[in-house]
Amino acid sequence: MDEGLIGVCIGERRTITIPPHLAYGEEGTGSKIPGSAVLVFDVQMIDFHNPSDNTEVTVTYKPEECDKLTKKGDFIKYHYNGTLLDGTLIDSTHSYGKTYNIVLGANQVVPGMEDGLMEMCVGEKRQLLIPPHLAYGERGVTDQVPGSAVMLFDVELVEIEEGLPEGYMFIWNDEVPPGLFAEMDKDNNGEVEPSEFTDYIMQQVNDGKGRLAPGFDAYRIIDNMFSNQDRNGDGKITEEEFKLKADEASHDEL
Ligand SMILES: [Ca+2]
Ligand SMILES: [Ca+2]
Fold first, then answer.
1. Where does the PPIase FKBP-type domain lie (predicted)?
2. What is the assigned CATH class of domain 56-161?
Protein backbone atom coordinates (compact mmCIF):
# COMPACT_ATOMS: atom_id res chain seq x y z
CA MET A 1 0.00 0.00 0.00
CA ASP A 2 2.94 2.30 0.78
CA GLU A 3 4.21 1.93 -2.76
CA GLY A 4 0.77 2.25 -4.30
CA LEU A 5 0.21 5.67 -2.72
CA ILE A 6 3.43 7.29 -3.89
CA GLY A 7 2.89 10.09 -6.42
CA VAL A 8 -0.87 10.31 -5.94
CA CYS A 9 -2.50 13.77 -5.98
CA ILE A 10 -5.46 15.09 -4.00
CA GLY A 11 -8.75 13.95 -5.56
CA GLU A 12 -7.13 11.14 -7.53
CA ARG A 13 -8.67 7.64 -7.56
CA ARG A 14 -6.59 4.54 -8.02
CA THR A 15 -7.02 0.82 -7.97
CA ILE A 16 -4.12 -0.75 -6.14
CA THR A 17 -3.49 -4.45 -6.59
CA ILE A 18 -1.20 -5.93 -3.99
CA PRO A 19 0.39 -9.38 -4.38
CA PRO A 20 0.48 -11.60 -1.27
CA HIS A 21 4.19 -11.12 -0.54
CA LEU A 22 3.59 -7.35 -0.19
CA ALA A 23 0.37 -7.85 1.80
CA TYR A 24 -0.37 -10.59 4.34
CA GLY A 25 1.73 -13.37 2.79
CA GLU A 26 1.04 -17.09 2.81
CA GLU A 27 -0.42 -16.90 6.29
CA GLY A 28 -3.16 -14.35 5.64
CA THR A 29 -4.74 -12.61 8.62
CA GLY A 30 -7.93 -12.82 10.66
CA SER A 31 -10.97 -14.62 9.32
CA LYS A 32 -11.42 -12.48 6.20
CA ILE A 33 -8.03 -12.64 4.48
CA PRO A 34 -6.98 -16.16 3.51
CA GLY A 35 -3.38 -17.18 2.84
CA SER A 36 -1.71 -16.06 -0.42
CA ALA A 37 -4.50 -13.57 -1.13
CA VAL A 38 -4.11 -10.87 -3.79
CA LEU A 39 -5.72 -7.72 -2.42
CA VAL A 40 -7.40 -5.10 -4.58
CA PHE A 41 -8.04 -1.66 -3.10
CA ASP A 42 -10.03 1.18 -4.62
CA VAL A 43 -8.64 4.33 -3.06
CA GLN A 44 -9.42 8.01 -3.36
CA MET A 45 -6.94 10.54 -2.00
CA ILE A 46 -8.83 13.07 0.12
CA ASP A 47 -5.91 14.95 1.62
CA PHE A 48 -2.32 14.45 2.69
CA HIS A 49 0.39 16.32 4.48
CA ASN A 50 4.08 15.95 4.99
CA PRO A 51 5.74 16.14 8.43
CA SER A 52 8.31 18.52 6.95
CA ASP A 53 5.60 21.01 5.94
CA ASN A 54 5.71 24.38 7.69
CA THR A 55 2.98 26.88 8.40
CA GLU A 56 2.14 28.62 5.15
CA VAL A 57 1.84 32.36 5.74
CA THR A 58 0.00 34.64 3.30
CA VAL A 59 -0.05 38.35 4.15
CA THR A 60 -3.52 39.59 3.23
CA TYR A 61 -3.10 43.17 4.49
CA LYS A 62 0.01 45.14 5.36
CA PRO A 63 -0.26 48.63 6.88
CA GLU A 64 1.89 51.37 5.30
CA GLU A 65 3.79 51.75 8.51
CA CYS A 66 5.01 48.32 9.47
CA ASP A 67 8.35 48.72 11.26
CA LYS A 68 7.79 47.37 14.73
CA LEU A 69 7.58 43.59 14.39
CA THR A 70 6.60 40.90 16.87
CA LYS A 71 9.29 38.70 18.35
CA LYS A 72 9.68 36.05 21.02
CA GLY A 73 8.74 37.31 24.49
CA ASP A 74 6.35 40.03 23.29
CA PHE A 75 2.88 40.14 24.79
CA ILE A 76 0.48 40.38 21.87
CA LYS A 77 -3.25 40.78 21.32
CA TYR A 78 -4.79 39.41 18.15
CA HIS A 79 -8.01 38.30 16.52
CA TYR A 80 -8.38 34.98 14.79
CA ASN A 81 -10.93 33.08 12.81
CA GLY A 82 -10.12 29.40 12.58
CA THR A 83 -11.70 26.94 10.14
CA LEU A 84 -11.06 23.56 8.57
CA LEU A 85 -10.19 23.46 4.88
CA ASP A 86 -13.83 22.81 3.97
CA GLY A 87 -14.83 26.03 5.72
CA THR A 88 -16.21 24.48 8.92
CA LEU A 89 -15.81 27.10 11.64
CA ILE A 90 -13.77 25.87 14.62
CA ASP A 91 -13.37 29.01 16.67
CA SER A 92 -13.34 32.77 16.27
CA THR A 93 -12.38 35.57 18.66
CA HIS A 94 -14.97 37.73 16.92
CA SER A 95 -17.69 35.63 18.53
CA TYR A 96 -16.32 36.62 21.96
CA GLY A 97 -15.90 40.28 21.04
CA LYS A 98 -12.37 40.42 22.42
CA THR A 99 -8.84 39.62 21.36
CA TYR A 100 -6.84 36.55 22.25
CA ASN A 101 -3.73 37.50 24.21
CA ILE A 102 -0.50 35.54 24.51
CA VAL A 103 3.20 35.83 25.21
CA LEU A 104 4.87 34.86 21.94
CA GLY A 105 7.23 31.91 22.20
CA ALA A 106 5.83 30.74 25.55
CA ASN A 107 3.98 27.71 24.13
CA GLN A 108 0.58 29.18 24.88
CA VAL A 109 -0.79 28.29 21.42
CA VAL A 110 -0.08 25.55 18.85
CA PRO A 111 3.38 25.80 17.23
CA GLY A 112 1.99 26.68 13.79
CA MET A 113 0.12 29.65 15.22
CA GLU A 114 3.22 30.78 17.06
CA ASP A 115 5.26 30.65 13.83
CA GLY A 116 2.54 32.49 11.92
CA LEU A 117 2.43 35.39 14.38
CA MET A 118 6.17 36.13 14.32
CA GLU A 119 7.59 39.28 12.71
CA MET A 120 4.15 40.79 12.29
CA CYS A 121 3.21 44.45 12.80
CA VAL A 122 0.09 45.97 14.37
CA GLY A 123 -2.75 46.12 11.85
CA GLU A 124 -1.28 43.41 9.67
CA LYS A 125 -3.56 40.57 8.56
CA ARG A 126 -2.45 37.12 7.55
CA GLN A 127 -3.87 33.81 6.51
CA LEU A 128 -2.14 30.84 8.10
CA LEU A 129 -2.37 27.34 6.68
CA ILE A 130 -1.22 25.06 9.49
CA PRO A 131 -0.44 21.37 8.91
CA PRO A 132 -1.79 18.96 11.56
CA HIS A 133 1.57 18.25 13.19
CA LEU A 134 1.89 21.99 13.96
CA ALA A 135 -1.77 22.24 15.00
CA TYR A 136 -3.83 19.61 16.83
CA GLY A 137 -2.05 16.52 15.55
CA GLU A 138 -3.45 13.13 14.67
CA ARG A 139 -5.73 13.17 17.69
CA GLY A 140 -7.41 16.53 17.15
CA VAL A 141 -9.51 18.02 19.96
CA THR A 142 -12.49 16.04 21.25
CA ASP A 143 -15.78 17.32 19.78
CA GLN A 144 -14.04 20.29 18.18
CA VAL A 145 -11.22 19.47 15.80
CA PRO A 146 -11.10 16.16 13.91
CA GLY A 147 -7.86 14.18 13.85
CA SER A 148 -5.15 15.12 11.34
CA ALA A 149 -6.92 18.36 10.45
CA VAL A 150 -5.22 21.08 8.45
CA MET A 151 -6.23 24.38 10.04
CA LEU A 152 -6.84 27.65 8.27
CA PHE A 153 -6.58 30.77 10.41
CA ASP A 154 -7.24 34.39 9.50
CA VAL A 155 -5.35 36.48 12.04
CA GLU A 156 -5.11 40.21 12.69
CA LEU A 157 -2.55 41.70 15.07
CA VAL A 158 -4.11 44.35 17.31
CA GLU A 159 -1.43 45.24 19.86
CA ILE A 160 2.19 44.54 20.79
CA GLU A 161 3.66 45.06 24.22
CA GLU A 162 7.38 44.62 23.91
CA GLY A 163 8.84 41.75 25.90
CA LEU A 164 12.05 41.72 27.90
CA PRO A 165 15.27 40.22 26.57
CA GLU A 166 15.21 36.43 26.73
CA GLY A 167 15.60 35.03 30.24
CA TYR A 168 14.73 38.29 32.02
CA MET A 169 11.59 38.81 34.07
CA PHE A 170 12.50 42.30 35.36
CA ILE A 171 14.84 44.97 34.02
CA TRP A 172 15.78 48.49 35.00
CA ASN A 173 15.03 51.11 32.39
CA ASP A 174 18.00 53.20 33.50
CA GLU A 175 20.90 52.68 35.86
CA VAL A 176 20.45 50.44 38.88
CA PRO A 177 19.85 52.86 41.80
CA PRO A 178 22.73 53.02 44.31
CA GLY A 179 22.00 52.05 47.90
CA LEU A 180 19.35 49.66 46.71
CA PHE A 181 19.21 47.50 49.80
CA ALA A 182 18.71 50.43 52.16
CA GLU A 183 16.00 51.81 49.88
CA MET A 184 14.09 48.52 49.99
CA ASP A 185 14.50 48.07 53.74
CA LYS A 186 11.91 50.72 54.58
CA ASP A 187 11.69 49.99 58.31
CA ASN A 188 15.46 49.88 58.52
CA ASN A 189 15.74 46.60 60.44
CA GLY A 190 18.53 45.22 58.27
CA GLU A 191 16.25 42.76 56.50
CA VAL A 192 14.03 43.03 53.45
CA GLU A 193 10.69 41.34 54.04
CA PRO A 194 8.47 40.13 51.17
CA SER A 195 6.07 43.09 51.52
CA GLU A 196 8.93 45.60 51.42
CA PHE A 197 10.33 43.87 48.38
CA THR A 198 7.00 43.73 46.55
CA ASP A 199 6.16 47.36 47.35
CA TYR A 200 9.56 48.49 46.15
CA ILE A 201 9.44 46.65 42.81
CA MET A 202 5.84 47.74 42.11
CA GLN A 203 6.87 51.32 42.89
CA GLN A 204 9.72 51.12 40.35
CA VAL A 205 7.33 49.75 37.73
CA ASN A 206 4.72 52.44 38.42
CA ASP A 207 7.39 55.16 38.27
CA GLY A 208 8.63 53.85 34.93
CA LYS A 209 12.05 53.02 36.36
CA GLY A 210 11.79 49.29 35.83
CA ARG A 211 9.77 46.85 33.77
CA LEU A 212 8.36 43.38 34.43
CA ALA A 213 7.94 40.81 31.64
CA PRO A 214 4.52 41.56 30.11
CA GLY A 215 1.75 38.98 29.99
CA PHE A 216 2.65 37.24 33.24
CA ASP A 217 1.32 37.70 36.75
CA ALA A 218 3.38 40.53 38.30
CA TYR A 219 3.16 39.21 41.86
CA ARG A 220 4.25 35.77 40.78
CA ILE A 221 7.33 37.19 39.09
CA ILE A 222 8.16 39.24 42.18
CA ASP A 223 7.71 36.19 44.41
CA ASN A 224 10.22 34.34 42.26
CA MET A 225 12.64 37.24 42.38
CA PHE A 226 12.35 37.32 46.16
CA SER A 227 12.99 33.56 46.52
CA ASN A 228 15.97 33.93 44.26
CA GLN A 229 17.50 36.55 46.56
CA ASP A 230 16.54 34.79 49.78
CA ARG A 231 19.35 32.24 49.66
CA ASN A 232 18.62 30.43 52.89
CA GLY A 233 14.85 30.51 52.36
CA ASP A 234 14.00 32.04 55.74
CA GLY A 235 11.55 34.53 54.25
CA LYS A 236 13.74 37.62 54.42
CA ILE A 237 16.73 38.97 52.54
CA THR A 238 19.77 40.14 54.46
CA GLU A 239 22.30 42.57 53.02
CA GLU A 240 24.82 39.73 52.84
CA GLU A 241 22.46 37.52 50.77
CA PHE A 242 21.68 40.45 48.56
CA LYS A 243 25.35 41.14 47.82
CA LEU A 244 26.10 37.51 47.06
CA LYS A 245 23.27 37.27 44.55
CA ALA A 246 24.27 40.52 42.88
CA ASP A 247 27.81 39.20 42.41
CA GLU A 248 26.49 36.15 40.60
CA ALA A 249 24.74 38.42 38.09
CA SER A 250 21.66 36.23 37.81
CA HIS A 251 19.09 37.13 35.21
CA ASP A 252 16.50 38.96 37.21
CA GLU A 253 19.04 40.42 39.54
CA LEU A 254 18.30 43.81 40.96
CA1 LIG B 1 12.89 45.55 56.72
CA1 LIG C 1 17.28 34.95 53.97
1. 1-49, 73-161
2. alpha beta
